[in-house]
Amino acid sequence: MNNVLQIAWLIPILPLIGFMINGAGRNVLSKGISGFIGSAVVFASFLLSVYVFIQVKNGNTHVAHYFNFISVDFLKIAFDFKIDQLSSLFLLIITGVGFLIHVYSTSYMHEEPAKDFAKYFAYLNLFVFSMLILVMGANYVIMFIGWEGVGLCSYLLIGYWFKNNDYTNAANKAFIMNRIGDLGFLLAVFWLIAKAGTVSFDEVFSAATLAKLSTTDITGITLLLFVGATGKSAQIPLYTWLPDAMAGPTPVSALIHAATMVTAGIYMIARSNILYTMAPLTQGVVAIVGLTTAVLAATIALKQNDIKKVLAYSTVSQLGYMFLGLGVGAYTGAVFHVMTHAFFKALLFLGAGSVIHAMGGEQDMRNMGGLKRYMGTTHLTFLLGCLAIAGMPPFSGFFSKDEILAAAYANNPVLWGIGVITAMMTAFYMFRLYAMTFVGKFRGTHEQEHHLHESPAAITIPLIILALLAVIGGWVGIPEVFMHGGHRLEAFLEPVFEQSNAITVKHELSHATEYMLMGISVAGALIALLYAWNKFSKYEKTEVPSAGFSKLVENKWYVDEIYNAIIVQPLRSLSVFFNNVVEKKGIDGLVNGTGKAVNYGSRQLRWLQSGQVGAYVLLMVIGILVLFIIQLFL
Amino acid sequence: MGSYITFPELLIWLPLLAGILCFFTKREQSARSLALLFSLIILGISAASLFYTGTKYATWNAVIYFYPNNIGNTFFVGLDGTGRLLSFLTALAFPIIFIATYKNNYKNAASFYGLMLLTQSGLMGVFCSMDALLFYFFWELALIPVYFLCSKWGGEKRIQATFKFFVYTFTGSLLMLTGIIYVYLHTSGKVFEDGTQVAHSFALSSFYNATLSGQEQNWLFWLFFIAFAVKMPVFPFHTWQPDTYDQSPTSVTMVLSGIMVKMGLFGVVRWLIPLFPLATVKFSHIVMVLSIIGIIYASCIAIVQDNLKKLVAYSSIAHIGLMCAALFAMNQVSVQGVMLQMFNHGINIIGLWIVVDLLEKQTGVKQISKLAGVANKAPVLTILLVIIALANIALPLTNAFTGEFLMFSGLYKFNPWYAAVAGIGIILSAVYTLNMIQKVFYGNTVSTTEAIKDISWNEKFILGFIVCLIFIIGIYPQPVIDLTREAVTALVSKIK
Amino acid sequence: MDIKAYIVLALTLFTIGIIGVLVRRNAIIIFMCVELMLNAVNLLLVAFSKMHAVSTAAKALPTFASDAQIFVFFIMVVAAAEVSVGLAIIVMLYRNTHSVDVNFLNRLKN
């Protein structure tokens, strides 16, 4: 109990306090104050996270017990936080990147009325709070609290401009898609409870509990958990909410895509790594789904014209990469990619936000161009971000992507091949985006051109910091071939994955192969990059309707339409059928029918009561005669 | 206390007394204040009863009176864990309802409040009685004032709706009465403490020990179950509910949905399962399948429902379906979840009704399609509603999550497929709740919602109180769980 | 005399009474027919009583089997009371409606 890490509860509580202050005081707080509170609490959490990280770095891990959440019969669910290498790393990413996004938002959202401004910051803080609970929870139920919490916050933030029906539709879609995944997660938890009797990480991953679970159990549980991950981390088949989530303010997109929410699935699988390692079938599914998503999203990103949509699909694609990494057992690689991705994707989104801000809300890249003349800092940082995501050495994306690809190659060269093609597409669409936005000549209206300006410091400083991180962030994981002991992240995360590492067979690639793999992927990306540059740096607006494959891609493979046709519409028809036919005609018909039958029968019987005494007597006589007959003859 | 008067007696007689007093008040204001005052006193007593548990205070919690010319029926009332929880819910609900509708004006307010308090007395009696005949008496006593309340103060189609309600519930009640008499005839004789000797007895313990063959249990089970299923209601006995909820005055709807539906579940817990354990095991699958069909079915209808009140009604049917299914899973975890959820559901649905009532009062419409953009005009109301609605769809850290979590894990243990199919209800509940929020609260205002005002002090207070309860139980549900632990253990052991 | 003769007579009287009640509309005649039926029953009672009284089993008994004859007196007393009430009703009826037709008395219908 006396472990210094017991104070970890302060880390999530601080943003919660920020949420409460901003939420309760939204009518009285000025913009400056609510922005300051919102950012300050996250910064304080960040400082604490640094402290926690240093503690963990020095070998102090801890499960902090606070109180019993639920305790029934054999089922004991404690409100515990688990502080170890994995969670402390995520704490740093969440609070660090989260803080920069908060700072950025103080400027970006400045045109909002003070009331909404405070509401916005309250939601952001709640978002950070939920994500912190998610990564700190020491069992699946506490994790689920954060898991649903981030879903809720994304709902609130996507629908932040609630007057617009399209935005609220997107918010609903995000929440419902996530709920579908959450059901998978919950069923996995119930399965665990039924079979293992516990949900706490330490107990589930202990050898004794694992021995209790059959292969079917583990495969089933991991598959269901993965269903949860596909919802939260936007994988096939539940990815369509994420591009729609662009309806929210741009910093929110950055927060969802980089620091929080979508990385939850990766975190969860990395946390449950031993279960996944023990279920090869699930690993295969994870790898294939991840790769398919990566390719699919990358193809869609090729033809998008909305600057945020390109980035959104690129996130889906990068997440696919991470799942590929998880699927082939490169847990460190996946977590590494989460980290580097957090840096450059936050950078790209914030940069895009800066562009949109300058363009007065314009998001269509066809109306941009030549912005590098007006926005020096944004341009430069954005370029660095693009290089990082394209996997150019020595930027951060190179190292993490390379690690995943190398692991994929060791597992199956086909996976690697498709991975490289995806990487090329990534380079292509990112530089298409870059070229269309910053190079060439301006294609917007004169009014917009007049308005163009570099964003204020609150926007550019986070960009610069993130750009720096996007450049050097990969250096904590320099592969063995370049530098012995260069992969400090792997060494740091070793204790988390040691169980898995103990049972997996290591495919050691020779140095020559590794150099070759790197060479091919970098060369491929470079070719794609130059091709895109060449093609789009002198982009002119044309109105040629696309056809064939590009039309298919432009319309996102019609996935939304297909979902609408096979799920939404049938559900609606079924509901209407239930309401109009079964409920009203069937059950109510039966009930009312009984009433009507009685009514009708009585109405008929009434004619017997004619009021004529003679008729009554006649009936009486007949009745007596009938009784006589029955008595005598039957 | 104890040797003079007991908790259950206070809980039953005080509302009755208050109700009768209300009938004699002259002015609306005095009836209202009297009702509120008494309901608060009852709440205080009920809250106190939560702390005086255990064998040490046994004499405070149970009492038995005999009648002369005994046929084996007694006035035997007592509080066990389940009864304590539900009587507390009842005691809590009435002040909430009275405060929330404090500004409503009723014609003939004296009778209105009088009947409301009579209902409370009946409900308390149901939750406290330990004697079958007494239980039946209170069961009807709770029903009759509601009938008058609906038919006198209801909406346009109130006569039709109340008639349906009455016929449904009364049919169920009569079936149950038949069952009670049959079981009574199969109880063994008993010698009471005062020396009276009877051939048969209505006492709960005699009923539990009645000698019933498996065959007899089979059909008696259905006699009782239909009575309880109508009250809950379980698919396909539910069609009275949306109509009644729609047509009743909202405060009565709150009583109906918040507490009355719990009578059905309580009946299952107190009478059905302990009386017919063999039949329970035999028919649990049928009941659970019906309940689960009900979850999906009601959720689907809620999705396309345009009437706000009916939407809440169908959502309630779906939630009750889950509770019924979990109850028949009959393991400690699921039943504990049901206990917790009975309380939570009562709180949450009353909160929802308060909001619906506010909207209807201010705009005069209850069609979702005619409302929009309320959030622009009434932000506080929107925030409170969103929280309550999220509790309704069982978001973690709200009270319903813990309940549903336990119910689902118990259900899963019983049969994974049931849990999986019932789980679809979680998704559907999000669909209809979010749709409702989006259509009613988001968007731009329309003519109906143009003049809407944010909520006043009493509603703000009471909704705030409900929201606090939602979070407190959501974060620390253990006290509520502990309250019913012994009762649940006893119940579950009946099956094994 | 053979018992059959009494039975036939009683049945005839009773049938006449029934048919009278059924077909006639005059309240007084219906009333008389009802009396006729009562008396048919009386006749039967007396006849059977006599029959049992002369049977050998009854002779052995110390007391005379007089139950049925007591019944007859009962019926006569009740019939007398009935006549007084019934006739009063019919008189009141006539005063109100100036008719003794029973089919006229269907105002309770509907």
Question: How would you characterize this protein structure?
Answer:
The complex is a heterotrimer of chains A (634), B (496) and C (110). By secondary structure, chain A is mostly helical. Chain A has helices at 10-24, 31-57, 85-108, 114-136, 140-158, 165-196, 201-204, 207-212, 215-232, 241-244, 250-259, 263-271, 273-277, 280-302, 307-327, 331-358, 376-390, 396-411, 413-438, 446-451, 457-472, 488-503, 511-536, 548-554, 559-605, 613-633, and strands at residues 62-72, 75-83. A two-stranded antiparallel ribbon of chain A has the order 1-2. With 496 residues, chain B is mainly alpha-helical. Chain B is globular. Chain C is an all-alpha fold and 110 residues long. The chains are: A mainly alpha (634), B mainly alpha (496), C mainly alpha (110). At the A-B interface, strand 1, helix 5, helix 6 and helix 25 of A face helix 7, helix 12, helix 14, helix 17 and helix 18 of B.
Number of helices of chain A: 26
- How many strand segments of chain B? 4
User: What percent of the residues of chain B sit in helical stretches (DSSP H or I)?
Assistant: over 70%
Sketch the topology of chain B as an H/E string, one letter per element: HHHEEHHHHEEHHHHHHHHHHHHH
Low-confidence stretches of chain A: none
Low-pLDDT residue spans of chain B: none
Write the layout of secondary structure elements.
The complex is a heterotrimer of chains A (634), B (496) and C (110).
Chain A: H1 10-24, H2 31-57, E1 62-72, E2 75-83, H3 85-108, H4 114-136, H5 140-158, H6 165-196, H7 201-204, H8 207-212, H9 215-232, H10 241-244, H11 250-259, H12 263-271, H13 273-277, H14 280-302, H15 307-327, H16 331-358, H17 376-390, H18 396-411, H19 413-438, H20 446-451, H21 457-472, H22 488-503, H23 511-536, H24 548-554, H25 559-605, H26 613-633
Chain B: H1 7-23, H2 28-51, H3 58-61, E1 62-66, E2 74-78, H4 81-100, H5 109-128, H6 132-153, H7 158-185, E3 190-191, E4 197-198, H8 204-208, H9 214-231, H10 240-247, H11 250-275, H12 277-304, H13 308-329, H14 332-363, H15 374-377, H16 379-392, H17 399-414, H18 416-441, H19 457-475, H20 478-495
Antiparallel strand pairs in B: 1-2, 3-4
Helix pairs in contact in B: 1-2, 1-5, 2-4, 2-5, 4-5, 4-11, 4-14, 4-20, 5-6, 5-11, 6-7, 6-11, 7-9, 7-10, 9-11, 9-12, 10-11, 10-13, 11-13, 11-14, 12-13, 12-18, 13-14, 13-17, 13-18, 14-16, 14-17, 14-19, 14-20, 16-18, 16-19, 17-18, 17-19
Chain C: H1 3-23, H2 27-54, H3 56-59, H4 67-97
Helix pairs in contact in C: 1-2, 2-4
